[in-house]
Amino acid sequence: MRWTGIAVLALACGWSGSAAAQGTVEFKVGDTVIVATPPKGYCPPAGDAIATARMTAAADSANVTLATFYPCGKTQATQEDYFLVKAPVQALALEIDRDTALDQLSAALNKPEVVDDAAEATSKQLSDRTSAMAGKPVSVKSSIRFTGRDDVCAYLGGTVGFASPDPKLSVTTEVGVCMTVVAKKLVAVYRYRKAGPDPQVETLQRSARNFAEGLEGKAAQ
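RE: above sequence
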């Protein structure tokens, strides 16, 4: 398993989950079903936001977007405040315990030169795919970096900027990422919020961790 490759896929920035019991969402990583309770105040996409979430997911070919959560009541997608749950394509069949995964992810991500090269390549890929889907030029610039780990997550954080002649497509967001293992499957929770005057990456990382800790594997029927 090429951990450097899997780790840098997380630098890439839809809705593919399905409704389960009331208040929960189910999605699959490989053959494993994971159950998520949406963060308080956030819901799966509804109305026109469903198509936008799917388009956003399709722009990231390195990861499968398992679930998307916008502020409840929004029928239009927002790029300013949302959660994503993703899994690296290369790791869908992988089964691993959390401590081993976090050790190996941390070692792979703690190489600035590798991360910088990957971030540049990922930004170009996302720019090309987002522009093609939007039908307008969109330049994506990512400054996401590894910021450390604890017993639950390997953390990434930074900014993702979208620039376009269309002001509706131009926004800079901050993001906090928790990469973790649930039911022996590698998943990542991305917490995005529009960038403001005060840094909020650490707050977003805590929010991502809190949500990740509520993910559970579903027992086989």
